[in-house]
Design a protein that fits this description.
Elements: H1 3-8, H2 11-30, H3 35-55
Helix pairs in contact: 2-3
Length: about 60
């Protein structure tokens, strides 16, 4: 693998991004103002959880 690819695929970058997605999904799930935001909350939450699971396997 190239050095640039190796630095791009690091756990230290993807875990915090996934945690932000999980937090955003939770906020979207609990907000009372918009049904549109609420309807996308599960997809955002699921993407964050899947990303965190994958990021845990990265070096």
């Amino acid at each position: 693998m190239k050095a640039s690819t190796r630095s791009w695929l690091r756990r230290s970058r993807w875990e915090p991004a996934s945690m932000v997605l999980i937090g955003l999904g939770l906020v979207m799930l609990m907000q009372p103002w918009s049904l549109d935001i609420y309807s996308y909350s599960f997809a955002v939450l699921l993407a964050g959880v899947a990303g965190y699971t994958v990021a845990g396997k990265l070096p």
